[in-house]
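The methods section describes the discrete structure representation at length, but only in general terms. What matters is that the chain and its backbone geometry are given together, residue for residue. Nothing conveys this as quickly as seeing an actual entry. For illustration, here is how one protein appears when written out as sequence plus structure tokens:
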Amino acid sequence: MVKISVSLLSAAVCASLFSTAQLASLAASADGDLDNPAPTALLDSNSSRASLALSSAANRALLADDFGKAEKLACSAIAKDGENFEAHRIYAVSLEARYRKDDSRDQSLMLKCIEAWLVYMRAHAAEAGRIHFDGVGMSNFAPAHDNRYMLAQQHLKILVGFAPHAWETNKHFLQRVQKKFGNLSLADTSK
């Protein structure tokens, strides 16, 4: 079977991979039990397809402003297929939306959001098979037409006021964020 890049698949292609009954079953199970969001037989046969269906359900939840559900569905999609970059984007967007809605501006949620955008931003290096270390590599000098990189940079600039420098590691970037905000706890980060 030919492996298709997840980033090239659209919602229409995802819909063509599943029958209407399978999509309805996935959506129904996603509405209920988030720990077991899809039929086992379907997940066992092709976790990439299940991940696409979960990210589609997460996108619907995101569009319905159900950010908690979108976050959980995106996490499930990422667990099934870590290269599902659409699920990574939905996860980051849902975290950011939850952070913006929260009047107390929970700093741990902000940190999770920043880390999610960093994963999404640096993912293009892994996808292209480029050499990188700790989120930094030659791909950071790729032409600026990489949509994921630019989208993540834009969101990071809005969240914290700046984006990582070209050769800056994720750890160093998070340390700069901590200097700016002062009260972020970076003890949980291993990046």
